[in-house]
Amino acid sequence: MKRFLVILVAVAALALVTADLLHAQTGGSGVVGFNLTNAGRVRIGPYPYSSGTAHVGRTTATAALNKNAVFDYNEDANKTAYVAQKITVPGVDDAARTIADNSYSNKPPKVRVEVTIYFWAGTKYIIYRYRFYNDSTGAMPLYLGSFTVPMPSGAYGGETVAYNISKRTSYFYRTGTAAYISQKLLNKNLYSMRIRDWDVYSSDPESDVATDSVRYLMATETANDTLLTAGADGSVFCMNAGLYTLAPKDSADLYFGMGIGATAAEAIALMDSAQAKYGKFVTSVEKTTAVVPAHFALEQNYPNPFNPSTQIRFGLSVRSSVTLTVYDALGRSMRTLVNQQLDAGEYTSMFDAAGLSSGVYFYVLKAGSFVESKRMVLIR
User: Fold this and answer.
1) Does the structure show a pLDDT above 90 at 351?
2) 10 phi, psi to nearest 5 deg
3) Between 208 and 378, whose confidence is greater?
4) Among 48, 250, 296, 307, which is least packed by CB within 10 angstroms?
């Protein structure tokens, strides 16, 4: 437990961690339980969730600007005024959300991360989303990803971390236990998978100290590590999504699956199921702010070009009957992303191009008498 107990040495850190844990949200599907803290730490284990049986020490967001500036949960993350809470999401049986920023360290990069967990009854996996916001006044090139500290069966050390390249799925386990924990980036191809023994990752294993330069290398290197058996202090790994250049106040979404299987084969298959679930539920539209825009607007999708998914934002100045449709270059309708009445506000819809070939596509927003279209490019 070194990587958590030593955090309590400093009084300020003790206050932060205590407040974070007191406002954590727990829940689950009846099979897998989750824990989400104010500062954005995700854990899963058997349902109902118990810290003593959790399989994950922490899964958290990372945003790497340069070798001296990496947003990391342990050194930078702090809760905002938004406290971790349960939310209602159409088509989802259980969900929770928190928002964290860098105000604990006040060191760059100045980012804010909204963490949302989605569960469905009877499933052995969750889907979680990181929405990264650039809260600075200038554009930032950020390498984004998810950082995980394995803790199979509630203990560190001796676990094996593996990466299946063909399935783009990671999993970890400890020989002698029947829990295989898998993870996968769902909304784009993985940029890289980097695995480190804890004592290599941390410059001071007893004090949970790792430099931003180490984190930056893990976030930016393009190679894929495929197998590591950890020493007595355990291991860490990063599933990296690659480089995103975010304009001020702009955001980017990463969706990951995480599941618990009884074998490596089942754990990998769970991520296939999570991928299929993602393709169905993220096509729904989400209201991102209650601010009412002065005019109807359709924004350029981001990222563009994309593979395999992208987000489309639009604004409604009054309540309207809305359709958002994707067409191919020949004008054939490929997907209807939105077809419903929506209140005035700003919205985001995710488009997953699974099953579509590379090429130019167009998306068309119709809201009352307002009609606008934009061009996007899918690159496989």
Assistant:
1) no
2) -85, 140
3) 378
4) 48
Question: What is the Rg, in whole angstroms, of the alpha carbon atoms belonging to the chain?
Answer: 20
Distance CA 117, CA 126 (A): 7
In terms of Cα–Cα distance, which of 255, 117, 235 is closest to 184? Answer: 255
Query: Does 45 have pLDDT greater than 90?
Result: yes
- Rounded to 5°, the CA angle 215-216-217 comes to 90
Strand ranges for 67-165 from DSSP E = 69-71, 78-79, 85-86, 94-101, 111-119, 125-134, 140-150, 160-164
Neighbour order of strands in the sheet with 359-367: 333-342, 320-328, 359-367, 370-378
Banded model confidence at residue 7, pLDDT cuts 50, 70, 90 = very low
In the chain, the domains with their CATH numbers are: 2-281 (2.70.98.10), 285-378 (2.60.40.1930)
Here the tokens at position 192 are 């890289």
Query: Tokens 């409604």, residue?
Result: 316
For residues 30 and 20, the answer to whether their CB atoms sit within 8 Å is no
Distance between CA atoms of residues 151 and 147, nearest Å: 13
How many C-beta neighbours within 10 Å does residue 148 have?
A: 25
CA atoms of 348 and 129, how far apart (whole Å) = 14
